[in-house]
Design a protein that fits this description.
This protein is α/β, with parallel strands linked by helices. The protein has helices at 11-21, 23-31, 97-102, 128-135, 139-149, 166-175; strands at 3-7, 43-47, 51-56, 59-69, 72-80, 85-88, 107-113, 153-160, 182-184. The chain folds into 2 domains: 1-48, no CATH class; 49-184, Ribonuclease Z/Hydroxyacylglutathione hydrolase-like (Metallo-beta-lactamase, Chain A). The strands form 2 sheets. A 7-stranded mixed sheet has the order 3-4-5-6-7-8-9. Strands 1-2 form a two-stranded parallel sheet.
Length: 191
C-alpha cells in the first residue's frame, strides 16, 4: 500500500521528482542483493488546501495556513481524536494564527529557532538572522504562543540550529516566560 502524503500545492510534483531522482537507487535496491520490497517506495501524494483534509473513524485533521517564507505555502495541522488533540506547527514564522487552533490542546508540537546561535549571511548576501526571525519561530515568540495556548505539553521539534542542547533550549523557553511542561521531540516519543 503506498504511503499517503498530504501537503500544500506542489507536494505531488515534488514527490514525482524525488522518485525520479532516486530511480537508480530504487532499481539497485529492489533488483540487487538487498531485495527491497518492490513498489515499497510508492507514495500517493495529494496537494491540499486549508480546511479539513481527513475525517474518518473519529479522527479529524485540519490544515491551517501558516506564514513561512515569502511565496511558499506552509501548513500547520490540528489532529482531533475522541480523547486527544494535537497541533503540529510545521515550518512557521512567529504568528498568532495558531492561537485559536492550539488553545488547550493536549500536545503542541512546534518548531523553534535559538537566535543567540544564529549569525552570518546567505551566499546572496541576505542576513540569516532576518530570515530566521520571520521564517521560523524564535524561542521568545514560542514561549509567548505556548503561554497563551496552554497545551498539556509543548514538544520542541525542527530545532534550529541543529546541535542546540536540549536542556539549554528548554531553559530558554522557561526563561522567556512559559512555565508549562516542555519536551524535546524524538522519533517514537509518546506524550
Amino acid at each position: 500500500m503506498p504511503l499517503k502524503l498530504y501537503g500544500p500545492a506542489g507536494t505531488s510534483r515534488m514527490t514525482e521528482h524525488f522518485i525520479a531522482a532516486f530511480a537508480e537507487d530504487i532499481r539497485a535496491r529492489t533488483e540487487g542483493l538487498e531485495g527491497a520490497i518492490r513498489n515499497g517506495y510508492r507514495v500517493r501524494a495529494r496537494d491540499i488546501r486549508a480546511g479539513i483534509v481527513y475525517d474518518s473513524a473519529g479522527v479529524r485533521i485540519r490544515a491551517i495556513p501558516t506564514p513561512h517564507n515569502v511565496g511558499i505555502p506552509a501548513f500547520a495541522y490540528r489532529i482531533d481524536t475522541p480523547d486527544r488533540s494535537v497541533v503540529i506547527s510545521g515550518d512557521t514564522g512567529p504568528s498568532d494564527v495558531l492561537l485559536t487552533w492550539a488553545r488547550g490542546v493536549d500536545v503542541l508540537v512546534h518548531e523553534v529557532v535559538n537566535m543567540s546561535r544564529i549569525d552570518g549571511r546567505f551566499p546572496g548576501g541576505a542576513d540569516i538572522k532576518t530570515y530566521m526571525r520571520t521564517a521560523h519561530t524564535p524561542v521568545e515568540k514560542l514561549a509567548q504562543i505556548a503561554a497563551r495556548t496552554n497545551p498539556r505539553v509543548l514538544v520542541l521539534t525542527h530545532i534550529v540550529p541543529a546541535g542546540t542542547s536540549e536542556p539549554d533550549m528548554i531553559k530558554g523557553i522557561q526563561a522567556a516566560g512559559y512555565r508549562g511542561r516542555v519536551a524535546f521531540g524524538h522519533d517514537l516519543d509518546r506524550f
